Every structure is written in C-alpha cells, then in structure tokens.
C-alpha cells in the first residue's frame, strides 16, 4: 500500500471512528433522556388514571369498560389488576378474553407497586408481542389493594433515535469526502519525494554506491541524508566483512572437527559440513534447538551450563546420529565436545550471545581402546592356564620328580601339551594381527570348492576316526568360488575341526554347498548340542567360548572363529551361525561365485 493510499485510509479511518463514537454517544444519550422523560410522563398519567378509578363503585364489574374509557383519555394501554393479581380490565384485550391472560401478580412493575406503591418496567409484552414501557400504581380499596398499570409503546423514542442516526450517517459521508480530498492533496505533496527515496533505497540493495542527495531541511531531506550515511557505512562494513567471511568460511569448510554455534536463545545458527557428515545433521537444523536436532541430553546440559556460567567446559558425550546410517555400523558416535561462550563485542557485560562447540570424533579411538583392553584381559587369561601348568610341572620336576621316570614323563607330557597350546595361541594371535592389520595379502582366484573341501576333510579324517565321527562332503564338482586358497583352507579346517571336537563320539558332520544369487553358500553342519541363541552373535569374538572349560580341554585357543570371520570378510564374503534342523550348529559361509563373475 502506497503513502497516498495510507493517508486516505488514515483520514477515512479517523472520520469513521469519529462518526461511530459520535453516533454511539448521541443515540445512547438521547435515547436515555427520551426514555426517562417518557417514563416520568407515563407515571404522571398513571397517577391520574388511578385517581379516576378510585371513585368507581363495583370496580370488578366496571373494570373492562373503565379500562377502555381511560385508555383513550390517557393515550396509553390501561390494565386493572385485582388484589389476587388477576387482570379485570385491559384496554388492549376484549372482555371475553381476559380469562386467557396470565396472573399478573408476579410482573415486576405490579409487584413493586404492591410493595412500594409505584413500579416501573420495560420488556416485550406477552400479550401484544411489542416492546413496552410500564408504570404501575397501587390503589387501596376495601376489598384489598388493586394495581392500575399503564403501558406505552416507545415508538416516538425509536423514531427520534432513527432520525438522529440518519443525521450522523449523513455527516459521516460528508466528513469522508472532505477527508479523502485532504488526503489526496497531502499525498501529492509527499509521494513524489518519498517515491524517489524508495527507488534509491531499492537500488542500494544491489549498488551501495548510489546516493539520494535530497535537498531541503525537512524530515524527508533528513531521511535522504540518513540513507546516504547508511549506504556509506554498509559499503565499508561489506568490504571489511567480505574478506573475513571468506576466510572464516574456508576454515570451517576445511576443518575435520565438527562446529556448532547457538544464539542467545539457544537455537542453532551454524553447523559446518564436518559436523553434518559426522552426525547426519540436515540443512534445516539452523533455527532449531540442539536437543531437537541431536537428541542428546548430555550435549543439551553442556551447552546450557556454558551459557549460564559463561565459562568454557569440555565433556565426552555419546550421541546417536540425527539420520540413520550416519554413524556407521556402531550406530552411535562418541565425541569430545569443547564448548565456550560466544560473546559479541557490543554485548560484553550483558551475557553470552551464544555458545560455540567443537566436536572431536573419538569413536574409533574408544573402540580400539576397548578392543585393546579386552584383548589384553583375554590374552592374559588364556596364557595364564598353560603357563601355570608348565610352571607347576617344572617346579615338581625340580623338586625331585626327575628321579621318578614314570612321574617325570607325565610332567614332561604336561609341559609339552601346554607348550604346544601356547605355540598355537601365539600363531593364532599373529595370524589375527596380520589379517586385521591387512599385512596378510590375499590372492583371490578361481577355486573348485569340492576339491578344496575334500582336501581339508582328508587331513582331518584321522581325528574324526578317533571320535568315530562321520564327515560327509556334499559339494558338487565344478562349484567355483572366487577366494584365496590358503585362506579358504584355513576357514574350512577351522569349521570342520570345531564340528568334530564339539560333538559327541559317533556324530555326523556334513559339508554342503549351493549357488544363490551370484554367490556360493558353504554350510558346515553337525548333529551335536548346537549353540544357544544367546551365544550365537558372539561366537566370532576373540577368546569367546560357549563352554570355556570344554574348549580349553579340547585344546582350542578361542581365536579360530574370529580368524575365520576376518578371512571370510577379507574375501568379500560373510559368515553366520544358526542351529540346524537336527539341533546341531550350522555355520553358513557366503563367498562370491567365480562362475557369476565370469558370466558378468
């Protein structure tokens, strides 16, 4: 809306407001005065009618005719009510219909007249269905107090108020016409210079070199001068901030640490790309509270603490990603957050203008530290038993058992078994370390899984024969997989050897393979006791045993399945375990099919 339209609207609004106020005042004041005057006049006429009725002999019999006669003389409706509240005469109701009227003793003006001598009222009459003014007076007679009531329809009042309202409307229309004319004249005098200033101000948005240079000493000239000063100040600030903003943006873009900045209300004002990538924060996070975006009570408490105390603080927090998949398989990120109050120079002494928080991702570091702690604890536990056995046996030999050849041989065998176990444990640890450190180079090639399985089972036939265990290979010749020969042999050996050792004597172990969606699924199943569901997700962890005592007694190191899992994953495969239909353990290895690769 332009200045001209605003001036016209303002003038019209003032005129309308004045007319409405004046109309309300006149109608209310005039109506009240007319109504008061009418009520006083009606009360005086009621007194005269009561004096005329007082001389009647049998008032109950004469009431209908007397009410009609007195109504013409009084110029109002006359109602005569007996001491029981029954209407005996009414100038507006024929005598034969008087019995149809309600008892009037409860009417306000009638009740007031009986108790106070006079009464007044105003309402819509049930008889005439019109708004009426009532005046009543008590008339004491030998048979009891009668009430004489006059009713008057305030038509004259309404006509006077309507006439006054019409005059106000006419005056309002005249005032509107004058206001519009005055507004048009004033708008023409101002709009030209204001339109010019508006054009200059719009041009300054793209070109701060533009100047208004308005001549004069009035307010519009002062506005033009202020615009010129503002443009010069903004141009200087833009030049200064341009370089700083570019440098600041480049620093934020290149930072590997996440940065989050909040304002004085605690809402996010800035998030750098590193934090968006780290925690999966979307671009619509700006303007929202950090708790709503990241849903971390620890981060929320840290930011509030820094904003409240105006002192830097640091805390390690575990945060779930804002979007699925942002934190990788672990699902959550562990970050060290260093937060400090952000105080603008112009607001020093008034409190923090916000908080700046820098996020350092230590998820992998904490994971490695946890693995190291677990590894040291588990390795120490695994080494303690054979070392203790070796030490105990050697001490016994040194204490005199060497002189007993039979006993000495038993202790030497104990030392040999535990030394062998230590040797296997160290070798497995070295293998696992090389695989995890990618120091063991794999050479994937096309292998016939049937030949590989037969060769592995042949090496374990003697061990299976000792436990009367049947090992069956059900792999079709020509089942080709893309895998490293040594790694695949190690995986097969581990799975079949585990199946033989962890099943009762006389059990059956089956090695099967089938093609599935460009892959080959290798299965090793036994009919032993199986693996409880609670343990199935952890059997591939280092040193994890479902039955620790039984595994150590069988000579296991607790690293075989972990090595198998790492080797399978290094060959772009996957390994899982479930309980088969017969209740035994079913290890399922999925490897890329060499046939599918050749066809592709």
TrEMBL record:
Reactions catalysed, as given in the entry: ATP + protein L-histidine = ADP + protein N-phospho-L-histidine
Biological process, per Gene Ontology: osmosensory signaling via phosphorelay pathway; regulation of DNA-templated transcription
Enzyme class: transferase
Gene Ontology molecular functions: ATP binding; phosphorelay response regulator activity; phosphorelay sensor kinase activity; protein kinase activator activity
Keyword Cytoplasm: no
Domain PAS: 244-286
GO cellular component labels: membrane
Keywords: ATP-binding, Kinase, Membrane, Nucleotide-binding, Phosphoprotein, Transferase, Transmembrane, Transmembrane helix, Two-component regulatory system
SMART domains linked: HAMP, HATPase_c, HisKA, PAS
EC number(s) reported in the record: 2.7.13.3
Membrane topology: Multi-pass membrane protein
Domain named Histidine kinase: residues: 378-595
InterPro entries linked to this entry: BphY/WalK/GraS-like (IPR050351), HAMP_dom (IPR003660), HATPase_C_sf (IPR036890), HATPase_dom (IPR003594), His_kinase_dom (IPR005467), HisK_dim/P_dom (IPR003661), HisK_dim/P_sf (IPR036097), PAS (IPR000014)
Subcellular location: Membrane
PROSITE patterns xrefs: HAMP, HIS_KIN, PAS
HAMP domain boundaries: 188-239
Domain of life of the source: Bacteria
Signal peptide: none
One Pfam family linked to the record: PAS
UniProt KW Transferase keyword: yes
PANTHER family given in the database record: SENSOR HISTIDINE KINASE GLRK, TWO-COMPONENT HISTIDINE KINASE
Name the UniProt record assigns to this protein: histidine kinase
Species classification: Bacteria, Pseudomonadati, Myxococcota, Polyangia, Polyangiales
């Amino acid at each position: 809306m332009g200045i001209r339209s605003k001036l016209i609207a303002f003038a019209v609004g003032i005129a309308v407001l004045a007319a409405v106020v004046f109309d309300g005042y006149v109608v209310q004041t005039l109506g009240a005065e007319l109504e008061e005057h009418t009520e006083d006049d009606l009360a005086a006429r009621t007194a005269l009618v009561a004096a005329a009725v007082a001389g009647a002999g049998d008032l109950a019999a004469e009431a209908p005719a007397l009410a009609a006669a007195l109504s013409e003389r009084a110029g109002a409706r006359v109602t005569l009510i007996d001491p029981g509240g029954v209407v005996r005469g009414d100038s507006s109701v024929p005598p034969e219909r008087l019995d149809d009227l309600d008892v009037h003793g409860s009417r306000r003006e009638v009740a007031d007249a009986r108790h106070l001598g006079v009464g007044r009222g105003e309402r819509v009459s049930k008889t005439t269905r019109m708004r009426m003014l009532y005046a009543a007076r008590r008339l004491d007679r030998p048979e009891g107090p009668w009430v004489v009531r006059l009713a008057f329809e305030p038509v004259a009042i309404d006509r006077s108020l309507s006439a006054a309202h019409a005059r106000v409307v006419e005056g309002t229309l005249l005032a509107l016409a004058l206001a519009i004319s005055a507004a048009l004249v004033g708008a023409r005098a101002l709009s030209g210079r204001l339109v010019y200033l508006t054009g200059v101000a719009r041009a300054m948005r793209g070109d701060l070199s533009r100047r208004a240079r308005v001549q004069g000493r009035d307010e519009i000239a002062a506005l033009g001068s202020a615009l010129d000063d503002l443009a010069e100040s903004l141009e200087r600030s833009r030049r200064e901030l341009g370089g700083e903003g570019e440098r600041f943006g480049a620093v934020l873009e290149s930072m590997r640490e996440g940065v989050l900045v909040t304002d004085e209300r605690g809402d996010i004002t800035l998030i750098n790309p590193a934090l968006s990538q780290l925690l999966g924060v979307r671009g619509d996070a700006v303007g929202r509270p950090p708790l709503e975006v990241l849903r971390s009570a620890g981060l929320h408490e840290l930011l509030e603490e820094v904003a409240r105390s105006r002192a830097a603080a640091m805390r390690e927090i575990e945060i779930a990603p804002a979007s699925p998949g942002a934190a990788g398989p672990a699902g959550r990120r562990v970050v060290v957050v260093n937060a400090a109050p952000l105080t603008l120079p112009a607001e020093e002494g008034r409190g923090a203008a916000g908080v700046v928080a820098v996020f350092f991702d230590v998820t992998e570091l904490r994971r490695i530290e946890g693995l190291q702690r677990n590894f040291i604890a588990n390795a120490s536990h695994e080494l303690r038993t054979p070392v203790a056995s070796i030490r105990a046996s050697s001490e016994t030999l040194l204490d005199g058992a060497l002189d007993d050849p039979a006993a000495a041989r038993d202790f030497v065998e104990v030392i040999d078994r535990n030394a062998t176990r230590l040797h296997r444990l160290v070798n497995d640890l070295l293998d696992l370390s090389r695989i995890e450190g990618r120091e063991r180079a794999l050479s994937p090639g096309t292998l016939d899984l049937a030949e590989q399985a037969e060769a592995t089972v042949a090496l374990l036939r003697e061990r299976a024969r000792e436990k009367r265990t049947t090992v069956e290979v059900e792999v079709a010749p020509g089942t080709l997989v893309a895998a490293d020969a040594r790694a695949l042999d190690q995986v097969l050996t581990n799975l079949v050897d585990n199946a033989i050792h962890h099943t009762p004597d006389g059990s059956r172990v089956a090695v099967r393979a089938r093609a599935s969606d460009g892959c080959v699924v290798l299965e090793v199943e036994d009919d032993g006791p199986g693996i409880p569901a609670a343990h199935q997700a952890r059997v591939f962890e280092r040193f994890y045993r479902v039955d620790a005592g039984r595994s150590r007694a069988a000579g296991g190191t607790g690293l075989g399945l972990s090595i198998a899992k790492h080797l399978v994953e290094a060959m772009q495969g996957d390994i899982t375990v479930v309980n088969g239909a017969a209740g035994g353990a079913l290890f399922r290895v999925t490897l890329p099919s060499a046939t599918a690769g050749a066809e592709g």
